[in-house]
Design goal:
With about 70 residues, this protein is an alpha+beta fold. It is built from 2 helices and 2 strands, in the order βααβ.
């Protein structure tokens, strides 16, 4: 996270995006959804490799969530 507001460009998202997370957070995500908590945004990736790499920062065997971005 960076302390300043991230500038964004409005675009149509791809049909599917991915989120890599730790196993311990999966149940909470399924119950409450993806939440940014103390950050500005939730990190979503356009490819599985990047999402898995993000999830591996805190879990050797992360869970890969497939997000239907157009919904």
């Amino acid at each position: 996270s960076i302390p300043k507001k991230i500038s964004k460009e409005q675009k149509e998202p791809p049909e599917i995006l991915y989120h890599g997370t730790t196993r311990k957070f999966v149940q909470a995500i399924l119950e409450k959804g993806l939440l940014p908590k103390g950050r500005q945004y939730v990190h979503l990736s356009i490819d599985t490799q990047t999402a898995i790499q993000v999830g591996r920062r805190r879990d050797e065997n992360p869970v890969l969530l497939e997000i239907r971005a157009l919904e």
